[in-house]
């Protein structure tokens, strides 16, 4: 228990640091990096499983387990430190800390805690009752499925340029599947272990989406990554820990006293209420609704990383469409070169202050250029500008 607490504190620092790194990435890149991370986790898992099982201390972990347990966190910390050499976001920490979290975020936290608590409780019961060999075989299947899911997510993001990824619907599918699986566990006793592994996969999928969602919030709304990931991922891990303790210590006794079907059905109802009352798909959409014309929509942000395209690092035909579209709009509406520069950073989601710093202009000058752009294009909001750009890009 003491070792688990110390590991939690240590990895918590690395987790918050990684949250800051992900929060500085565009959503399209977040999806690709998360998918890559999930594949890497699976590879490391099978590497550890296939390592020699010689144990320096009888009854303790193998030497390979000890090495991985020490080396992997150290490597994570070193790699995170190397990120200091790579700029991530144009938003400063002081500016990000001033923005407030949307109300829908706190509803999401309620669902995160309840879901992780219940799923971990169910899995804890199975681990407590099952054999080590059976649980290990199930974990291997979950890891394989996790890798396939990550590759599928990366493939969809790459083929569709990310803008067709509907995380709201994916959230609803995961929650509905979890409700059905938890409710069916005591009924289909023959396949209880198999179903519990599917519940575990649903938990992994939810964690994958949660990490993406938290990074999206940091990037879109310029909110402190420590606050977003601290509350969001912290509550997920807290719910998992408490649920695991309940599952291994008390849930089986509770199920025996009130009846297993009733106990599991009650947990399924809690997840159902969280998914469709507390934080529904509609609430999910509201979470990423632009709060002002300076905030780009999530759909727009999920497209290809346009920031690289704006700096001229175009290597593919699809990546050049953004620059070509800017030129088309500038020519169509007779924008000056400086107005064209402001237009480029405007649709990329830069604030007036960030544009002024990027273009070495006075803040009032940037505001004047923005007014000229709106007047010449006939647009009333930033979303109107983005629609004109999408039309020029052939979206």
Give the helices and strands, then pairings.
Elements: H1 2-23, H2 27-49, H3 63-82, H4 93-97, H5 103-129, H6 132-159, H7 167-184, H8 192-221, H9 225-249, H10 251-258, H11 260-278, H12 281-287, H13 298-301, H14 306-310, H15 321-332, H16 337-347, H17 352-359, H18 363-377, H19 382-393
Describe the model:
It is elongated, with a radius of gyration of 24 Å. The protein is built from 19 helices and no strands. The chain is mostly helical and 395 residues long. Residues 89-98 and 304-319 have low confidence and may be disordered.
Short key terms for the protein model shown above:
single chain; 395 residues; mainly alpha
Q: Helical amount among residues, as a percent range?
A: over 70%
Helix and strand string, N-terminal first?
HHHHHHHHHHHHHHHHHHH
Number of strands: 0
Instruction: Kindly report how far apart the N and C termini lie.
Output: 54 Å
Mean pLDDT: 76
- What is the percentage of strand-forming residues? under 5%
Largest sheet: none
The rounded Rg comes to 24 Å
Number of helices: 19
Structural class: mainly alpha
Low-pLDDT runs of 5+ residues are 89-98, 304-319
| Shape, per Cα inertia axes | elongated
Oligomer: single chain
């Amino acid at each position: 228990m003491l070792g688990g607490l110390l590991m939690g504190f240590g990895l918590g620092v690395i987790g918050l640091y990684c949250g800051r790194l992900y929060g500085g990435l565009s959503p399209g890149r977040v999806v690709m990096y998360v998918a890559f991370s999930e594949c890497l986790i699976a590879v490391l898992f099978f590497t550890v499983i296939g390592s020699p099982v010689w144990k320096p201390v009888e009854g303790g972990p193998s030497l390979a387990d000890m090495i991985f347990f020490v080396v992997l966190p150290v490597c994570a910390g070193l790699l995170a430190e190397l990120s200091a050499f790579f700029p991530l976001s144009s938003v400063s920490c002081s500016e990000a800390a001033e923005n407030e979290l949307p109300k829908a975020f706190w509803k999401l936290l309620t669902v995160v805690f309840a879901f992780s608590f219940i799923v971990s409780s169910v899995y804890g019961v199975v681990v407590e009752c099952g054999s080590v060999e059976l649980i290990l075989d199930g974990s291997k299947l979950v890891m394989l499925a996790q890798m396939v899911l990550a590759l599928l997510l990366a493939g969809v993001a790459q083929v569709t340029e990310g803008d067709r990824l509907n995380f709201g619907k994916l959230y609803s599918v995961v929650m509905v599947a979890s409700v059905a699986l938890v409710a069916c566990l005591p009924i289909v006793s023959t396949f209880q272990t198999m179903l519990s592994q599917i519940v575990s996969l649903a938990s992994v999928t939810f964690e994958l989406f949660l990490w993406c969602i938290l990074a999206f919030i940091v990037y879109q709304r310029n909110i402190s990554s420590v606050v977003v990931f601290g509350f969001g991922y912290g509550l997920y891990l807290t719910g998992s820990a408490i649920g695991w303790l309940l599952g291994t210590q008390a849930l089986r006794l509770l199920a025996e006293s009130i009846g297993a079907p009733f106990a599991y059905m009650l947990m399924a109802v809690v997840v159902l209420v969280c998914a469709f009352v507390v934080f529904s798909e509609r609430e999910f959409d509201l979470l990423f609704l632009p709060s002002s014309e300076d905030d780009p929509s999530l759909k727009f942000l999920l497209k290809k990383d346009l920031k690289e395209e704006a700096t001229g690092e175009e290597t593919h035909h699809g990546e050049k469409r953004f620059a070509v579209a800017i030129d088309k709009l500038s020519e169509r509406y007779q924008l000056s070169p400086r107005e064209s520069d402001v237009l480029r950073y405007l649709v990329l989601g830069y604030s007036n202050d960030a544009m002024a710093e990027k273009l070495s202009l006075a803040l009032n000058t940037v505001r004047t250029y923005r007014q000229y752009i709106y007047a010449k294009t006939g647009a009333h909001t930033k979303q109107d500008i983005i629609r004109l750009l999408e039309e020029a890009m052939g979206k």
